[in-house]
Amino acid sequence: MRTAFVTNNASRHPGVVAAHLTELGIPADPAEVVTSGQAAARTVASRVPVGAAVLVLGTDALAETVALSGLRPVRTLHQAGPDGVAAVVQGLSPATSMADLAEATIALRGGALWVTGNADATLPSPRGLLPGNGAFVEVLRAVTGLDPLVAGKPDPALHLESVARVQSTRPLVVGDRLDTDVLGAVRGGADSLLVLTGVTDLAALEAAPPGSRPTYVSSDLRGLGEPHPPVVLSGRAASCRAATARWDGAQLTVEGDGDDALRARVALAWAVADD
Questions:
Q1: Is omega for the bond preceding 154 within 30 degrees of 0, making it cis?
Q2: How far is 256 from 252, CA to CA, in rounded Å?
Q3: Are residues 84 and 190 in the same domain?
Q4: Are residues 106 and 198 in the same domain?
């Protein structure tokens, strides 16, 4: 089994991400890390001339990634010179200011290509959900009337780059978001495992519509090392080994505990919703 660590966060270098994972007890090499910043830079580089000026709305790490793609990162239209900027690349940065958004607005209204690493509206933090890059994307969308090209999850480009990086023949996407991780897996034709240790909670998982449902579910990452027995549906009941979920027409009840109960509950909730 080979692993790629895929992040929609374009604010950090792959080496920084790998070092953080290693500190957490998950050995990682920078070559195994695939960021939306890399995907965004590649997207721009495939559409504008080599050496073109690109306005970077994001961190210095994103600007360096843009430079590695053969482009010239700038922070203002003045730095770009008389030819202006060919594109705007946007990624999350805690330092994004009104002045930065103003420069991007002028560039986009002038015809620059707009590429963003991701459109996630929220960002998990120890204090709860905070505004994500998508919140700033919406500001620019509101004032320009334009829509960006999204390079990160759930766009297939980032998924396919990750699969190619590890030469996977049977990829499994593991994540905690339905709208990026799971939807990205579906669009890329891959299986997915959703864990309930991040953004998606049980209520959101039960309400997931067809096309955004994971192949497997688990409370946490320990589900990677455990068997996932099938769920058997029978009328208004679903069973997974010793766990059983039942629907009486108004309420869903579960007998059992652990991930088997979780799988039975979620499978029955989806079946009821589809009916």
A1: yes
A2: 13
A3: no
A4: no
Q: Are residues 27 and 103 in the same domain?
A: yes
- The CA distance from 100 to 98, in Å, is 5
Residue 161 covered by a domain: no
At residue 252 the predicted structure's pLDDT band, cuts being 50, 70 and 90, is very high
Q: With contact defined as beta carbons under 8 Å apart, do 150 and 121 qualify?
A: no
Query: Domain containing 50 — which CATH number?
Result: 3.40.50.1000
Query: Looking at 186-242, which runs of residues are DSSP E strands?
Result: 191-195, 216-218, 232-234, 237-240
Burial class (CB in 10 A: 0-12, 13-18, 19+), 55: buried
Percent share of the chain, pLDDT over 70: 100
**Residue 112 near residue 86, CB atoms below 8 Å:** yes
* DSSP, residue by residue, 82-111: TT--SEEEE---TT--HHHHHHHHHHHHTT
Which SS3 state, helix, strand or coil, does residue 67 take?
helix
Between β-strands 232-234 and 237-240, what pairing exists: parallel, antiparallel or unpaired?
antiparallel
**Per-residue model confidence as pLDDT tens digits over 66-95:** 999 999 999 999 999 999 999 999 999 989
Question: Can you tell me which residue has the tokens 């034709």?
Answer: 189
Grade residue 25 by pLDDT with cuts at 50, 70 and 90.
Answer: very high
Q: Are residues 183 and 121 in the same domain?
A: no
Q: What is the pTM of this model?
A: 0.80
Structural domain containing residue 174: 170-221
